[in-house]
Amino acid sequence: MKRIRFNSPVILSFAIISGVVLALSMMTGGMIRDTFFTCYMTSFRDPLLYLRLFTHVLGHQNLSHYTSNMMMFLLIGPILEEKYGSKKLIEIILIVAFVTGIIHIFLFPRMGLLGASGVVFAFILLASVTGDRSGNDIPLTMIIVAVIYIGQELYSGLVLSDNVSQLTHIIGGSIGAVYGMSVKPSRR
């Protein structure tokens, strides 16, 4: 008899926690989201500023925002977690959260940043590098994905006014590509 297996602890935990955060945010009219899961500039003496540099990737504006991020996250994440291990995936998530959060508060101090899309784009580019076994080559798939993806983000950032942080996507994707080219896959 087949049984359900908790196959990807980091990815599943992240998706579940993000879902709980969304539910709590909806029940509090966004207060939980805005207080703990949206990155924005406040006083450097505010301890929540430092917490939000990491937790903003768990917050989402609404169900549509959550599902669009989690579909890709749940599709790509388990493959990466199996290939790189749980600890390295946590490391990538934390690096992307921190770097995108810091850059955001200095470049856009009056705007809030939330959502897992920077992490998702890190995973997309990390996945495109993952197939290289030697570590000496740059996979053509990564180059094509990067050109299409960065081109689309630049276009969106210049032409559209959609409240989406294309800069966060580009930073996340860049971190994923660099990480994938510099860190060797390992088993959990």
Please characterize this protein's 3D structure.
This protein has eight helices and no strands. With 188 residues, the chain is mainly alpha-helical. It has one domain: Rhomboid-like (Rhomboid-like fold, Up-down Bundle), CATH 1.20.1540. The longest helix is centred in the middle third of the chain and has 22 residues, at 63-84. It is globular, with a radius of gyration of 17 Å. The relative contact order is 0.14. The mean pLDDT is 87.
CATH class value: Mainly Alpha
H/E order of the elements? HHHHHHHH
Distance between termini? 26 Å
Global Rg? 17 Å
The CATH fourth-level homologous superfamily? Rhomboid-like
CATH architecture: Up-down Bundle
The largest β sheet comes out as: none
Shape: globular
The number of distinct helices, counting runs of at least 4 residues, comes to 8
Binned strand content: under 5%
Instruction: Write down the CATH topology.
Output: Rhomboid-like fold
Structural class comes to mainly alpha
Mean pLDDT: 87
Number of DSSP strand runs? 0
Whole-number total of structural domains:
1
What descriptive keywords fit this protein?
globular; about 190 residues; mainly alpha; Rhomboid-like fold; single chain; 8 helices
